[in-house]
Design brief:
- This protein is α+β, with helices and mostly antiparallel strands and 118 residues long.
- The protein is 30% helix and 38% strand.
- It has three helices and six strands.
- It has a six-stranded mixed beta sheet with strand order 2-1-6-5-4-3, covered by helices on one side.
- Helix 1 (2-11) packs antiparallel against helix 2 (17-27).
- The longest helix has 14 residues, at 46-59.
- It is globular and about 40 Å long.
- The mean pLDDT is 95.
Amino acid sequence: MSHAVETFFEAWGDPNPDTRAATLRAILPTELYYLDPRTSDALTDIDALIGYIAMYTEYAPGASARVVNLSTTGSTQRATVEFAMADGMKQFGQYFIEPDDQSRPARMTGFVGLGEPE
């Protein structure tokens, strides 16, 4: 699943909607669960998630996302992701990712930041 997780976030920076969607369809199940602080509700199918990621590339041209750390406990992975804007501004987030029975990322829950104590 590690490769699929890395590929999932790399796709966020693909400016071509056709290749981005094809990449995501190749690594994700059609039914899934995706939630982060910017989604109003969980996204539960691949088309909704592809549309959500398209908004990121549309509203932040030249931006990218990449996994900078990945750890595993049991079958759950924790990914630290760097979101970088074209102007150099960066934001980090963490995602907890559970696989389906084919080792595809099927349940993803994201958080802003790295969980630093206040």
